[in-house]
Amino acid sequence: MLAIVIPVSFAILGLAFLLTLARLVRGPSLPDRLVALDTLNINAIALIVVYGIKLRSTVFFEIALLIAVMGFLATVAFTKYLQRGDIIELN
Amino acid sequence: MQTVIEALVCVLLLLGSAFTLVGAIGLLRLPDFYMRLHGPTKSTTLGVGGIVLASVVYFSTHDNYASLHELLIPAFLFLTAPISAHMLSKAGIQQRVFISSATRGRPPATGACASNEAARAAPHEGEPGRDA
């Protein structure tokens, strides 16, 4: 049963990736593209966890957690740059 | 018993993938930036929660110990998704993105997020220098 469901799950997640990429290309404004990038991050976490189930390996958990942290930091830095024109303001 | 657990893993995987797909469809199809923000911040995060729950059930039954450390991922995502949504909507307000007529509420006329024209048109009473 799992041998059927895992490829189906891969297909659904890949479709979600494609739709998000379409918004990333189309997105009329910069915040739209930022939302699409954030969604790509979260989709990548889901895909990596499913891949870990397929390979029966727990190594992928650390990679998923790293991608989650890095994606959040990237989103925060991008929004800060959009709002202020600078990320680390010294004065 | 093994079949029941495998069925549970399958259902959780499919539910999580479906929620992720719904989030992506919402991101592509909704007409407005503020509506599009709903898709990834709610639906996709819940989808990752379902998929990680499937992984927890799978590895807990295969390795004979509770592999609960994977729950760190949805915990972190549930913490950070509202924060990033808040910052993204603030950036959208400041960039003055297109607002559909179906979207309820408008960006504030005064305060840190107000556009310059709106602040000049309706200056706030208690803040001198805001309309200068």
Give a short synopsis of this structure.
Chain A has 91 residues and is mainly alpha-helical. In chain A, 84% of the residues lie in helices and 0% in strands.
Q: Could you explain how this protein is built, in words?
A:
The complex is a heterodimer of chains A (91) and B (132). Chain A has one domain (2-84): Helix Hairpins (Orthogonal Bundle). Chain A is built from three helices and no strands. Chain A has helices at residues 2-26, 30-55, 60-84. In chain A, helix 1 packs antiparallel against helix 2 and helix 2 packs antiparallel against helix 3. The longest helix of chain A has 26 residues, at 30-55. Chain A is flat and about 60 Å long. The model of chain A has no long low-confidence stretch (mean pLDDT 91). Chain B is mainly α and 132 residues long. Chain B has two domains: 2-99; 102-132, no CATH class. Chain B contains five helices and no strands. Chain B has helices at residues 2-29, 33-36, 38-62, 72-95, 116-121. In chain B, helix 1 (2-29) runs antiparallel to helix 3 (38-62) and helix 3 (38-62) packs antiparallel against helix 4. The N and C termini of chain B lie far apart (72 Å). In chain B, 36% of the residues are buried. Chains A and B meet through helix 1, helix 2 and helix 3 of A and helix 1, helix 3 and helix 4 of B.
- What is the count of distinct domains of chain A? 1
What's the total helix number of chain A? 3
Largest interface, Cβ cutoff 8 Å: A-B, 47 and 53 residues
Total strand segments of chain A? 0
- Helix and strand content put the structural class of chain B at mainly alpha
> Beta-sheet strand percentage of chain B?
under 5%
How are the elements arranged and paired?
The complex is a heterodimer of chains A (91) and B (132).
Chain A: H1 2-26, H2 30-55, H3 60-84
Helix pairs in contact in A: 1-2, 2-3
Chain B: H1 2-29, H2 33-36, H3 38-62, H4 72-95, H5 116-121
Helix pairs in contact in B: 1-3, 3-4
Which key terms come to mind for this protein?
heterodimer, A: 91 residues, mainly alpha, Helix Hairpins, 3 helices, 0% strand, flat, B: 132 residues, 2 domains, 66% helix
